Structure formats: C-alpha cells, structure tokens
User: What shape does this take?
Amino acid sequence: MESYLFTLQKYAGIGSRHTCPACGKLRVFVRYVNTENGEPLGDHVGRCNRELECGYHYKPVDHFKENPSGNYAKAKVQRHKSKTQNGFAFAKPLNAISNDLVNLSVASAKANHFTQFLTNRFGSFVVSEVAKRFCIGTSKHWHGATVFWQVDSKNKARTGKVMLYNPENGKRVKKPYDHVTWVHSILRKNGLMPETFQLEQCLFGENQINSGKVKEVVIVESEKTAIIASIYLPEYTWMACGGLSMLSLNRLEPLNRLPIILYPDLKALSKWQAKANEFCANGFRVTVLSRLALSPLSFLPL
Assistant: This one.
C-alpha cells in the first residue's frame, strides 16, 4: 500500500472546506495537505466535491510538474508495505466507536428531524424497524440532527455521518452552511477521541449482513435513498456508499459472495459503470441499473 505525503484534507468542520477556484462555490473545495504538518500544498491544489457539476481536480502531481524546483520524487509518494487480508490492504488495525454510544443514539432516534419526516410519511411502526435495522441515531451537535452510523459486518461502528434535515420536506439543511459532519470529528474536538484513531469507512447498511437474511444487494449513493428505497422495495438489501466517489474494492469486500446492483443517479451512470467493470474484473458479481429501471423508485424524490 502506498502512503502519500500529500493527501486530501480530512473533514474537520466547515473550516476545512473552501471556495472552489473553478466554479466559485463556497465550502465545496478540499485541499491537498502535507500529512506530516497539515499544511496545504496550495490554495488551488485540491478537488471540488461537485464532481458532476464542476469536476475540478488539481493534483499534487500537476502542481509539481508545473513547479519542478520542488523535490517531486519525495513529495509524490512515500512507499511502504502494509498487511493485507484477502488482497485488501489496511495500514493499521482499525478502531471502533463504543457500541454504547451507538445504542444510546439509536434509542433516541424519534427525536431527530429525519425520522420525524419519515414517520409522517410511513408511520411510526415502519420507521422504528428501519431505524434499528440501519442504525439511525440522533445527535445533539445540531438540534434534531441525524446520525447515519456506519456499522460493519462485525458489528463495529466505524463512524457516523451527522446531518441535519428539514422535518417537513426531508431535505438537507444547507443554509447558512451545509450541515454535515462526522461523529469521530466531534469526539476528537471534545477530547474524547485519540488523534491516533484509524478510520476506514464501510458501506452504510453493511451490518445487515449479520441478519443472515441478506438478499440481492443494491448500492446507492445517499443514506436517505437507501432507507426510503428499503421501505418501497424490501425484496432487496439496500446499502449506501455515501458519495459519488466513495465506491471502492475495500468497501465491497464484505459482499464478495453476493450479487450486487449499483443504482447511481442518472448523471453518475457512466462513472458507476466504469466502477462496475473494475469490480467485475476483481471477481465481484456487479451489474448497473439506470435510475429509470426500478419502479416505483423511478419517480420518487429520493
């Protein structure tokens, strides 16, 4: 496994997201930073999170090609070997967040805006079952905030994505800023998480493997889509990768014996088809469906 001297800055609150030099949007640009001291390589060296709308990605390799005076050979990459398991690399043993914290937040799931929206639409009985199955919790970070816990196939909570929704229409709150953060970031800021915490995200909903009743797996981008789709089409096992570019061989590894359907947004169809080809070349059984393929989801505002 290669360990790069410059990597995209990990999310640490809205201060770690900047204005994109290409599209001009606020808080969507992620800079490349030095892993040794945390300093950015340059204000314009990074990636815009609006991959489809903007697509700006200025890499360290591009920077050093245009600025050859720097020690490019050293700055490009530091190589080391790491332990592998079934061909998938992990640099260090992974940490987990206390199951007590997860259970406590899931027990209070009725207090968050997202589950309130779901309850108004589907009823409390359905939402209670879905909240337990997907480990949907509540956070005090923002009043009414939702936690989408990433619990793996070994029942270990890798982290949780904290998001704020409008309880009336179920849409994300993006003003005056995009209300999204991570449990491990919150705990670290409050001195409850060691700096050495080793994060390796997993698919949202991966814990469903433990039920022994796993059906054909459908992977979508957002947690919200996976949850609502599971209510309409329970004949599938729904999971979410959490972002357009968050699909990887490592994350699919626990599903290596299962048939998998990738169900991307319409604009991401070609990107996910390329990913599917890569996964199939590595032994996975993966197909891709267009957003128009699964009725009744085709016309739902997911």
